[in-house]
Structures are given as C-alpha cells and as structure tokens.
Amino acid sequence: MTAARDEKPLESPSKLRAFLRRRFTREGTLGLYLTVGFLASAVLVILLSVVLDEVTELPGPLGIDRSVTMAMRGIHSPARTRALLVVTSLGDYRFLVPSMLIASALLAAAGRRVSALLFLGSVLGGWALESIMKIAFHRHRPDLWPALVTEKTFSFPSGHATMCTLFFGGVAALVFHVTQRRLYRVLAVAAAIPLALAVDFSRVYLGAHWLTDVIAGTLLGLFWVVLCATGTEYFARRSLRLAAAAKPGKRRARD
C-alpha cells in the first residue's frame, strides 16, 4: 500500500508531459486549439462585462469619455478630418459587405467551403450581435460638440469598431487557418491590428462615438472572431477526417 502510494507522485509528471506532448501532435492540436479559444473567449467576455458594468452604472458618459472626446476636438484639422473620413469608411457596410462576399466567394472557389461559410456567418453574426446590443442599451451619441459625421443609430457599442474588428480579424484568422508560413501570418496580424485601430480612432475623432463605445465594439468583435475561428478549425478538421474515412487512399489538403 505504501509503495503504491509513493509511486503516484512519480507517475503524475510523466503523465502530464505525455498529455502536453499529445496536444502538439497532429491528432491533439485541435484539443489545444479549442482550449486556447475557450480561454481567450472567457477573457474577452470578462473584459466586455467590465466595460458594460461601467457604462450602465452611470446615467451619463464616463469621465474618460468626456475627456477623450474634448481632447479630440483640440486636434481637429481639415487635412486630418479628410484622411479619417476615408479611414472610417473601412468600417462601413458599403465597404464591408462587398469585401465579405468577395472573400467568401474566393474561399469557396478555392475549395474551402467550410471557411467561406463560417467567415460569412461570422461577419453577419457579429453585425446581428452589435445591433441587438445597440437596441438593448440605447445609449445616445456624443453631444459635447457637433459631430463630423451623421449617424442615426444608437451609440453603444460602436458598429464600425465591431465590424472592422470582425472583418480584418477574421481575415487574419483565415490566414492562420490556410497556411503554416510564419511570414504570411505575421503580415496578416501586422495589417489587421493597425487597420482596426485606425477605424476605432476615427470614430472618436469624428464625434460618432464615446471611447467606451469603441472599446466595447472591439472586444465584441474579438470575441466573435475567436469563436468563429475556433469553429472553422473544428469543422475543417472534422470534414478532413470524414473525407479520409470515406477515401482512405486519398489525402485532402482543403476543408
């Protein structure tokens, strides 16, 4: 009895190492991917909950919202305004809808139908989520000075911030899904982050949103991107397994 008990602590480190080693094999990678996706989603939900709690606790905008909005007023210039009006259009439906359809069509034409459907669904699903939240919170837009753009919907969360995070983040996630090359992955992230942040900045600069609107929109977009990217990986690997089972002699590289 004593010897058996003494052996357990010695076995547990080896079992842990074996478990972790399996997570990085081809068969175990999906489990690791789903675990990381779950943890990332949980962190984003917590952060979004903190923002929601702060926003709903007070009847008006937070002090930081007022301070940032007034600071933006002080850096307005005709040239900067023209540039940011162009930047903010990257989060507009007139840019996102055609781009989303083109990207989905290219993926489908390349034989990646699962990725195409999930990318399409991620953008549409994110739009539905932020629309529901706007109606639920019915927060009014900034009114400390006349906005440089006209918007008719509610302010919280920022639709532009949500959608550009979804779109550019979704494209980066697709790059990670379709290629293992580090250069392409780095370029995708290096392009997605500044584009999304530029659109976020433009919304506050133009007086269309409070800072917390933009933060909430970005967190919501990231949450949905992680969820959909995890789903893409799961269903793509599932379809590969089914294809391999149906045609044992054939190996497929697409989903």
Provide an overview of this structure:
The protein has helices spanning 2-23, 29-57, 63-74, 78-88, 93-109, 113-137, 159-178, 182-205, 211-246. The model is unreliable at 1-11 and 24-30 (pLDDT under 50). The chain has 255 residues and is mainly α. It has 9 helices and no strands. α6 (113-137) packs antiparallel against α7 and α6 (113-137) runs antiparallel to α9 (211-246). The relative contact order is 0.14. The protein has a single domain, classed as Vanadium-containing Chloroperoxidase, domain 1.
Strand content: under 5%
Q: Using only CA atoms, what is the Rg?
A: 22 Å
**Count of folded domains:** 1
**What structural class results from the helix and strand content?**
mainly alpha
CATH topology term: Vanadium-containing Chloroperoxidase, domain 1
Q: Give the biggest sheet.
A: none
Dominant shape:
globular
Mean pLDDT comes to 78
Per CATH, the class reads: Mainly Alpha
Give the CATH architecture.
Up-down Bundle
Helical proportion? over 70%
Quantity of strands, as a count: 0
Q: N-to-C terminal Cα separation, in Å? A: 52 Å
pLDDT under 50 segments (min length 5)? 1-11, 24-30
Q: Please tally the helical runs, counting DSSP H or I stretches of 4 or more residues.
A: 9
What keywords describe this structure?
mainly alpha; single chain; Vanadium-containing Chloroperoxidase, domain 1
Annotate the secondary structure layout.
Blueprint: H1 2-23, H2 29-57, H3 63-74, H4 78-88, H5 93-109, H6 113-137, H7 159-178, H8 182-205, H9 211-246
Helix pairs in contact: 2-9, 4-8, 5-6, 6-7, 6-9, 7-8, 7-9, 8-9
